[in-house]
Amino acid sequence: MKINETSIKVRYQETDMMGVVYHANYLVWFEIGRTALIEDMGFLYHEIEKQGVVSPVVDAAVRFKQPVRYGDDVFVKTWVHDYDGLRITYGYQVKHTSGEVAVEGETKHVIVKRESFRPVSIRKHFPKWHEAYLHAMEKTEE
């Protein structure tokens, strides 16, 4: 399975009055990880958009395990959790450098035409991207 790990240096403006990362910022970090994973797969999201499609989030889940605070160094671990030719679910873990999981989550996306927001089959219209998703989910020997 292809996994991307992207480092995050927690900035002051990402925290709330309790000194911990404000919950909505984890979705921003998920997006950073997702974009990096797509690049690792050989694609640039802005180049994909030039083909008249976008990839909106249709569902998101976030589970909070441990706080992350200003000044912490963490990383976002991102992978393709599920893919069926139309919908893609990405999995995420935000981990402290100690390895302790702070946050887990998933986002589900579809590819739609920019003008109409009608779904587009990745399998049919973007075969190279389809193959990259299948390859990203393959189990690897460890």
Outline of the structure:
With 142 residues, the chain is an alpha+beta fold.
Q: What are its keywords?
A:
Thiol Ester Dehydrase, Chain A, single chain, alpha+beta, YbgC/YbaW, HotDog_dom_sf
Question: Care to describe what's here?
Answer:
By secondary structure, the protein is an alpha+beta fold. It has one domain: Hotdog Thioesterase (Thiol Ester Dehydrase, Chain A), CATH 3.10.129. The protein is 25% helix and 35% strand. The protein contains 4 helices and 7 strands. The chain has helices at 25-40, 45-49, 122-125, 127-137, and strands at residues 3-9, 53-54, 57-64, 73-83, 87-96, 101-110, 112-113. The protein has a 5-stranded antiparallel sheet with strand order 1-4-5-6-3. Strands 2-7 form a two-stranded antiparallel sheet. The relative contact order is 0.22. The model has no long low-confidence stretch (mean pLDDT 94).
Rg: 16 Å
| CATH 4th-level superfamily | Hotdog Thioesterase
The overall average pLDDT, rounded, is 94
Spans of 5+ residues with little confidence (pLDDT < 50)? none
First-residue to last-residue Cα separation: 10 Å
Name the CATH architecture: Roll
Strand numbers in spatial order across the main sheet: 1-4-5-6-3
State the secondary-structure class: alpha+beta
The CATH topology label is Thiol Ester Dehydrase, Chain A
Shape estimate: globular
Secondary-structure element pattern, one letter each: EHHEEEEEEHH
Please work out how many helical segments DSSP would assign.
4
Number of strands: 7
Helix share bin: 25-40%
Largest sheet entry: 5 strands, antiparallel
